[in-house]
Amino acid sequence: MPYDLILQNIGKHIHLEPQEEARFVSLLTSRELKKKQFLLRENEVCRHSAFVIQGCLRSYNLDENGFEHILQFAPTDWWTADMYSLISQQPGSLYIDALEDSEVLLLSKKDQEQLYHDCPKFERFFRIITENSLVANRRRVLDNLSLSAQQRYAMFCQHYPSLINHLPQKQIAAYIGVTPEFLSKLRKEFRHS
Asked: Which residue ranges of the chain lie beneath pLDDT 50?
């Protein structure tokens, strides 16, 4: 079944009956993204939550100098969205693009709200993943303020083990807030320790 991965993801938090699964998957839209293709751009309203079936996406913003600040990577089996824009339905500040050819399942904000009415346990599911996202973002802010670059790299390795050797060094450097050259030195230290 093409929806096994997303149903397993949901099954970590709530149990769905077969008719609830069928209702849920009927609301999903599949979308393929080529490498570097945008799912969302700054100043657009985020109208969908995206679940990554295959590939890897990233969420980031650009500062006034054009420097990327990566907020999240979303590899296979992860959810992503511009949460501020999705919840408020106001233009967002994030770009979300594909780091490689990817496939996502989209759930619109409107259909998500209808799911809450039709199957209230989805409210629990989305509350849990939103809370987990909030906790992860808070932890990341505190880590960026208090941890050394070496410690931030170690946290990246712990949080995204499948991406360590998969992503370009430039992407990892932007995520932990160092230059690619400094990250190269960090990686050498890690290999020798």
From this structure: none
